[in-house]
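Blackboard transcription, Thursday session:
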Amino acid sequence: MAIPKEKLSWMYETMYRIRRFEERLLEETQKGNAMGVAHTSDGEEAGPTGICAHLTDNDWIASTHRGHGHCIAKGLETNRMMAEIFGKIDGLCKGKGGSMHIADFSKGMLGANAIVGAGIPLAVGAAFSAKYKETGGVAVAFFGDGASNQGVFHESINLASVFKLPVIFACENNHYAQSTPVEYAVPVKDIADRATSYGIPGVVVDGMDVTAVYEAAGEAIARARAGEGPTLLEMKTYRFHGHYHADVPRTYRLEEEEIEWKARDPIPAFEKSLTEQGLIEASELESIRNKIEAEIEAAVEFALNSPLPPIEELYTDVYASYPTSVKGLR
Ligand SMILES: Cc1ncc(C[n+]2csc(CCOP(=O)(O)OP(=O)(O)O)c2C)c(N)n1
Ligand SMILES: [Mg+2]
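(Written on the board underneath:)
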């Protein structure tokens, strides 16, 4: 079935927003304006975009340490995301979470997560709650190839299958876990094959092709909404930058391999397909890009101008605080 034009346009805009957000974030990180480390996902934009195109605020996602794309695709505001990563009070978590802990429950975003694999059971819990409360919602667990070796992945997928929960296990196989090649750590060619052990469908999709992801995700989400249980969706993809902003991937990846994957950049590929098929005019795509450029510049300005959290904020929104005996803090 043909994808409606508004959806195609949204997908192009979303992928471009993710790309520009992260490119600008890297620049600001080099300048010292962002707190902590930035794990960028440029190259992987088609995955979160093609999946979240089917979701509403009534659906949940759980993310990873490489979560900016998931957040943006789920509709989080880029200015408050940027402020969060800059450690500022106007950030989505008042600057206390940073890049690896951005969350926005109002948008169904349960959080990025610094612990590899830890978002997976959160999504299963959200799916359990959606089924129990009959909200009609689904949950998506984003995770990497490395995370698929964590025990929690196997426990979560088993429980979700047994309970027929409305959850999609979305594996972003970017072929590396930090510097470890997937072939070294995963003894099967397709991580999707692991679904067989849990009696659920396992699907491999080209993670550089947003429409392919959209279609595969559409089937998995429809299945989940119909009460038929989870799907493991593996997207074969690649991160164009290092593991985090200061990582030098050339120490463990060959230049030829990088060139090959970059030639398959999902954004120009989608642009070409849209214009060649006459689905969206090149000029419309250009206006989208201009709009996003302005939005991202405004987000950087917003984040730079937002104040740091005041000292009293140390004691709010936390489960534990410093003992009162620490002098000067109270
Ligand atoms: C439980 C745990 N083990 C190790 C780490 C250190 N670590 C951070 S990211 C990462 C690699 C994760 O690889 P993958 O799941 O493929 O995600 P990718 O970084 O490729 O997106 C590792 C080992 C961690 N944060 N948490
Ligand atoms: Mg990986």
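Lecturer's comment: The first strand starts at residue 60 and ends at 62.
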